[in-house]
Amino acid sequence: MTELLDLNLVEASKALKKKEISSLELTKAYLKSISDTSSLGAYIEIVEVKAISMAKESDKKLIDGIARPLEGIPIGIKDMFCTKNIKTTASSKILENFIPTYESTVTQNLWNDGAVILGKLSCDEFAMGSSNETAAKGNVINPWLKNKKMSPGGSSGGSAAAVAARSALAATGTDTGGSIRQPAAFCGITGLKPTYGRCSRWGIVAFSSSLDQAGPLTRTVSDAALMLNSMAGYDQKDSTSANLKMPDLMDYLDKGIKGKKIGIPKEYTQDGISEDIVKFYEKSIGWLRDEGAEIIPVSLPHTKYALPAYYIIAPAEASSNLARYDGVRYGVRQEASSLDEMYELTRANGFGDEVKRRIMIGTYVLSSGYYDAYYLKAQKVRRLIKEDFENVYKKVDYILTPSTPTTSFELGKKQDPLTMYLNDIFTVPASLAGLPGISLPVGLDKSGLPIGIQLIANSFDEAGLISTARVLEMSAGFNFIADGAAK
Amino acid sequence: MPNKDTIVDVPTVNKIARLSRLGIPEGNKESLTNDLNNILGFVAQLDEVDTSNVEPLASVTGHKLPLRSDDVNDGNIEDLVLKNAPERSSGFFVVPKVID
Q: What is the pLDDT along chain B (100 residues), one digit of tens a residue?
């Protein structure tokens, strides 16, 4: 069993194609793993029967020699993706009984390429959070220092914990302000947020539509490349989907970075960042230099204003998107005598505190008399942040930053919403600019928790992002396994 | 942006809650008001940024929204549309009575 779990996605795929293993035995190993690591709480829905039947179908294709790119690979799906006939709750009480009648484009792309679904993964409610603590069914536990009950990060906390705990070979996530990259950093795995528009948003529960983007959480950079190859693609059903072909990312794994220019933004080494992270950030700069990259100091002067702009724009869009949960068309209804009272009680009982706070902030900044001062102002600052990146990309090819200011923290330790928001200080700027970013593990801090480093590329340069991340991955040689991982 | 410690008070919170159709229990209003003031105080930093002559940015895609021809491309899925409704009747969503 352990040997099966030791294989990463690319290795498992090769072993399947050589018929050294079958998808059925691989899928069964992962189902056992899910049960062995159930105390982490990563899964909120397990679809064993469907997993077994998809694995058997994949085995037939493998035998017939007509295997697709992800044939027989068992993966977990963040509960933000609508899955046909499989409960999809966005970790919210208001959707606790919602069973979609359609499939999201990204998950359909994965099934079309042969992937096998294991189940649905917990996340912060409506993807609003950075610790997975806002999930209606409770937090997920980080498999690192398991007994200390650390946060897996969020919002894709279940996805990151499952990949780190080896209860999924890979997982999907969504990233609005850091929700793939921050949990990947906390759980010692790789998380890639593509360029806005690369993956279709159709069938993903909407949080902040101008920022939401799907991406993979995986063990390695090459696993991320293989997953994103399948997830990405133009979709007529999403008006912001980019009609641009993405090259086969597997062709870019070993391109190296000789002569590439890496920008080091001075604004990302601020007070409050942990010493161990600074140490590994400096090591990472050295590794890239040793591999032939030119290191160039750069400045993104509006970085400081990214988080405040984000906490206007994202809640504004959320307040509008979440208006649909009215107890009429789907979700849980609270009975009342009048229509308005029914709306108010349904939403009061169905949403958790963080979601309510964001709806309230969003409604306020969009309300008459405050729209210009808050919402328009934030959109103007968003342009300045995007222009900062455009200026820097005239001089460099990639930007290297820490993924998070600290490593994971104990669950329940950060009660104040603002303190929680600061987790995303290094991931939000690229989100506002729509740029692709990847977080990968480069080392452990003094207490044994993983440290993530982020690379940010220019729009639609996922291929170059993969080449550069692969170099950093090889240099860092991070090969630790979480103590809470399935054995 | 107003630049004071108290940006919103309880009556304002009541008004926003009403606009949001969110029932807020009386006992939670003080702490919610406090949270909202902290967040609004934090985002007020944006006042420091000179944004004169800056156009607001609503979308990063840069492409024009595509149009499709106005044709019916699905239909006859009434059951699927209503499947998740808390209450339905004769092909309709049902809500509490609005007119006496």
A: 544 568 999 999 999 999 999 999 999 999 999 999 999 999 999 999 999 999 999 999 887 888 888 998 888 999 999 999 999 999 999 999 887 6
**Would the ipTM clear 0.90, i.e. be above it?**
yes
DSSP states of A30-97: HHHHHHHTGGG--EEEE-HHHHHHHHHHHHHHHHTT---TTTT-EEEEETTB-BTTB---TT-GGGTT
pTM exceeding the 0.90 threshold for the entire prediction: yes
Query: What residue spans define the domains of chain A?
Result: 2-260
B-chain residues within 8 Å CB-CB of A309?
43, 46
* Distance separating alpha carbons of residues A189 and A227, to the nearest angstrom: 14
Least confident of A26-35, A302-311, A411-420: A411-420
What sign for the dihedral angle of Cα A166, A167, A171, A174?
negative
Pairwise CA distance, residues B20 & A138, whole Å: 25
pLDDT at B3: 46
Exactly one of A28, A78, A260, A414 is catalytic; which is it?
A78
Contact state of B22 with A360 under an 8 Å Cβ cutoff: yes
Q: Tell me the nearest-neighbour CA distance from B71 into chain A, angstroms.
A: 14
CATH architecture of A2-260: Alpha-Beta Complex (3.90)
When the pLDDT of each residue in chain A is averaged and rounded to a whole number, the result is: 97
Contacts with A102 from chain B: Cβ below 8 Å: 80
Q: What is the mean pLDDT of residues A278-290?
A: 98
Half-sphere exposure of A329 (CA within 13 A, CB side): 10
Residues of A with Cβ-Cβ distance to B31 under 8 angstroms: none
Searching chain B, which residue's CA lies closest to the CA of residue A364?
A: B16
A326–B21 CB contact, under 8 Å: yes
The DSSP code for A296 is E
Among candidate residues B64, B50, B40, the one with its CA nearest the CA of residue A384? B50
Instruction: Return the number of other C-beta atoms located less than 10 Å from residue A85's C-beta.
Output: 12
B67 in A contact zone (CB under 8 Å) = no
Q: How far is Cα A87 from Cα A82, in angstroms, rounded to an integer?
A: 8
Q: Would the CB atoms of A101 and B57 count as touching at under 8 Å?
A: no
